[in-house]
Automatic annotation (TrEMBL):
<comment type="similarity">
    <text>Belongs to the galactose-1-phosphate uridylyltransferase type 1 family.</text>
</comment>
<keyword id="KW-0479">Metal-binding</keyword>
<dbReference type="Pfam" id="PF02744">
    <property type="entry name" value="GalP_UDP_tr_C"/>
</dbReference>
<dbReference type="InterPro" id="IPR036265">
    <property type="entry name" value="HIT-like_sf"/>
</dbReference>
<dbReference type="InterPro" id="IPR005850">
    <property type="entry name" value="GalP_Utransf_C"/>
</dbReference>
<dbReference type="GO" id="GO:0008108">
    <property type="term" value="F:UDP-glucose:hexose-1-phosphate uridylyltransferase activity"/>
</dbReference>
<keyword id="KW-0548">Nucleotidyltransferase</keyword>
<comment type="pathway">
    <text>Carbohydrate metabolism; galactose metabolism.</text>
</comment>
<dbReference type="InterPro" id="IPR001937">
    <property type="entry name" value="GalP_UDPtransf1"/>
</dbReference>
<protein>
    <recommendedName>
        <fullName>Galactose-1-phosphate uridylyltransferase</fullName>
        <ecNumber>2.7.7.12</ecNumber>
    </recommendedName>
</protein>
<keyword id="KW-0808">Transferase</keyword>
<keyword id="KW-0119">Carbohydrate metabolism</keyword>
<keyword id="KW-0862">Zinc</keyword>
<dbReference type="InterPro" id="IPR005849">
    <property type="entry name" value="GalP_Utransf_N"/>
</dbReference>
<dbReference type="InterPro" id="IPR019779">
    <property type="entry name" value="GalP_UDPtransf1_His-AS"/>
</dbReference>
<keyword id="KW-0299">Galactose metabolism</keyword>
<dbReference type="Pfam" id="PF01087">
    <property type="entry name" value="GalP_UDP_transf"/>
</dbReference>
Amino acid sequence: MQELRVEELGNGVVKRPTRLADGRELIYYDDPGTALGPDRAVDARDLAPRPDTATMRRDVLTGDWVSVAAARQNRAFLPPAHLDPLAPQSVENPSEIPSSYDVAVFENKSPSFGPALAAAVGEAPAAADAPRDLADLDAPGLGRTRTSVGRCEVVCFSPEHSGSFGTQSVTRARTVIEAWADRTAALSTLPGVEQVFPFENRGEAIGVTLPHPHGQIYAYPYVTPRTTSLLASIEREGHDLFERILAFERASDRVILTGEHWTAFVPFAARWPLEVHLLPHRHVADLAETTDAERDELAPLYLRLLRGVDALYDSPTPYIAAWHQAPVHRSRDTVRLHLQLTSPRRAADKLKFLAGSEAAMGAWIGDVPPEDAAARLREAVAGIPEVTR
């Protein structure tokens, strides 16, 4: 056992960083008033060396960069509960996390984006051809490649084998939010990182391979295509775009849930049969810029929203919960933090698949009028009691 150095975060959350056997970073985030002691077990596994950082290739037709990460082929796929790689280690389960925990964050074993520098013992080899800067990434030319510099982290919401963010307590949700904010700040300082993206994939219909309640954080070496398109919209519509969107939606019949600091709504031009956006009432570029009061309200409000989404049908709803944040080095005064929660579920037993128009041309056809979707969600959320525990 080892006693880790401690850092006090907001809301009484305690941060305890350490390393796994192959040098990857592991961070425990303890709930306020946790029942866990200060000691954590040492990761004594005999692990293979970390893979080389992946390579990305530029699609000359779109300008997008595509990371080619062959090591991801070896990741776990729906393992039995006793071999859950995100559960605390046991005699029969040499998992990724040596000790019991409340919330744990660690570097992905098979990342799409990896370190730029071999700064620690056991860390992946240094990037062979890292991006020079954003201008380098935008330069023209066929056959252009760069090393996929960045980081991919796994965020475990609970040591339990199954569940999601929405099944957590308010205390635990608040700890996860604190971890998201802390990791956003830390990842934004890494060499070569241009954007940080926390998200949760939920359900096998989305492609989830582990039922364990968890999400991920990607730190990209470029500004993502979705955000690049957003920047063009802000340039076209005006720098106060998010302020006007919030006022427009709050005056509509598409609002699902609202508080002092946040509003959830179905957007005017929703693409998915189930799509909800969640915006803070003041401008913040990312989760690291939110206040304690905003995080305190977000925990129960977001839980109530997710539980309402699950109340629509008799079985849990598959979704992607995507926290869009401003780029690290640009447009932080115009791009507002916002959640986009989307689900392909268009009926109890039907999914929307992206076929020719959407997948090939990016030309979306909505299946459900946004106002109808909002009415159903509002009714479902109204049936969920105020979340206090």
